[in-house]
Design a protein that fits this description.
single chain, 397 residues, mainly alpha, two-stranded antiparallel sheet, 1% strand, globular, Iminophenyl-pyruvate dimer synthase domain-containing protein, VioB/RebD_dom, Ferritin-like
Length: 397
């Protein structure tokens, strides 16, 4: 496979201290409660990627980089699919997904978890630095195995996301043997999100009812990200009868190299297909460390940034209600995502109000600062008040 680019440069601000995502102990889950911790961590991990991917997509100038726009959009939707499959898995083994909580939303910039390298995951505009980060996030895992394997015997912590998912897979198999399949998968089947509740770019949501479907869910998550069997492609064609598509890593690699993968290309060959029209300059440059407090109180940009964060908090409540109460509520994510798109226009197309940042050619941007106060306001603003699942239905997502 082609060599990864060097790690993204350090962030511009000298005082920036990347947040750390809490990681489970470096071992295979030992019991049901342990498995719940690992699966909640997986849910948090899948969500970690969504704001950076959305930021790259939202910063594209209208009418430009259409191939890149649709590729990133497809990956975002598949990350939402991964979140939903993890939630199904957590529900299936008797856990309860936590989404609408400030601990769930990582502050940005954050260090990439489950990695030997200290890679800052920041909210960057579309460009080479953002794509280099995305390639690190989605990089294929071909070597690392669960703790105890000779390849990781000398390690004292997680070395890759692939390794982390391998331990969950190993733990599921072991616990199914110890507790019995029916004993392990004893969650309420009414909490399972099905294909009728969710529309996605590639793959599909399915209920997790036992070990086979649980392992299939993990397969979809890992192979959509890194490909299968050292190939460029995911397994959506094999599992769901859909078109054969490159995995996330290779979609980002196509954009980064401005060339598509051909049908016979491999990770070692790199892309040899047609050139892609990618224009790095057709994006709104933003401050990767932007905060709401950087915008003047009462300004239009400040209000737009606050409305964006409030809308994102409402989206998290929609997801939590769908994962813990009524899967049909997930359809309400469609208008929530559309609202985020509309609010993004009011931010990314405005020169930064701070004179120093504006002089550097920077624009305003969303900050994804989700506090407990915002989440409380979002919960109260939903139709029916706190605790309700009576959310408006919309076009299928």
């Amino acid at each position: 496979m082609s060599t990864l680019p060097p790690p993204p440069d350090a962030l511009a601000g000298p005082a920036a201290v990347p947040a750390r995502v809490e990681e489970p102990p470096f071992r295979v889950p030992r019991d049901r409660a342990d498995l719940h911790v690992f699966l909640q961590a997986a849910l948090t991990l899948e969500h970690l990627t969504i704001p950076p991917y959305l930021t790259a997509m939202y910063t594209l100038r209208p009418g430009t980089n259409r191939t890149a726009f649709y590729a990133i959009r497809a990956v975002v939707l598949e990350e939402m699919l991964h979140m939903t499959l993890v939630a199904n898995l957590l529900n299936a083994v008797g856990g309860k997904p936590l989404v609408a909580h400030s601990r769930f939303v990582t502050g940005y910039p954050a260090l990439l978890p489950y990695s030997r390298d200290r890679i800052p995951v920041a909210l960057r505009h579309f460009g080479t630095a953002a794509l280099d980060t995305f390639l690190y996030i989605e990089r294929p895992e071909y070597v690392a195995e669960p703790p105890g394997h000779p390849s990781v015997a000398g390690d004292t912590g997680w070395t890759s996301i692939g390794q982390f998912y391998n331990t969950i897979r190993t733990g599921l198999v072991r616990l199914a043997e110890e507790l019995g399949e029916a004993g392990l998968f004893n969650g309420d089947p009414r909490r399972q999100v099905g294909p009728e509740d969710f529309y996605n770019s590639g793959g599909e949501v399915f209920p997790v009812t036992g070990l086979a479907s649980a392992l299939k869910a993990l397969r979809v998550i890992t192979e959509q990200g890194e490909g299968v069997s050292r190939t460029v492609y995911n397994t959506d064609d094999q599992l769901f009868g859909e078109a054969r598509e490159p995995a996330h890593y290779f979609r980002f690699d196509e954009i980064r190299r401005r060339r598509s993968y051909g049908p016979h290309d491999t990770p070692a060959s790199g892309p040899t297909g047609p050139a892609l029209d990618v224009s790095w300059e057709d994006a709104y440059p933003i401050d990767p460390e932007a905060k709401v407090t950087h915008y003047p109180p009462g300004s239009a940009v400040r209000r737009a940034a606050e409305r964006f964060n409030a809308a994102y908090a409402r989206l998290l409540w929609v997801l939590e209600a769908a994962f813990t109460r009524d899967p049909a509520v997930l359809q309400a994510a469609v208008p929530a995502m559309l609202q985020l798109r509309d609010l993004s226009v009011q931010l990314y197309r405005n020169p930064h109000p701070d004179p120093a940042r504006r002089a550097r050619g920077l624009y305003a941007s969303a900050t994804y600062e989700i506090t407990e106060e915002l989440l409380g306001e979002a919960r109260r603003s939903l139709p029916g008040g706190p605790g309700t699942t009576a959310l408006p239905s919309g076009t299928r997502w």
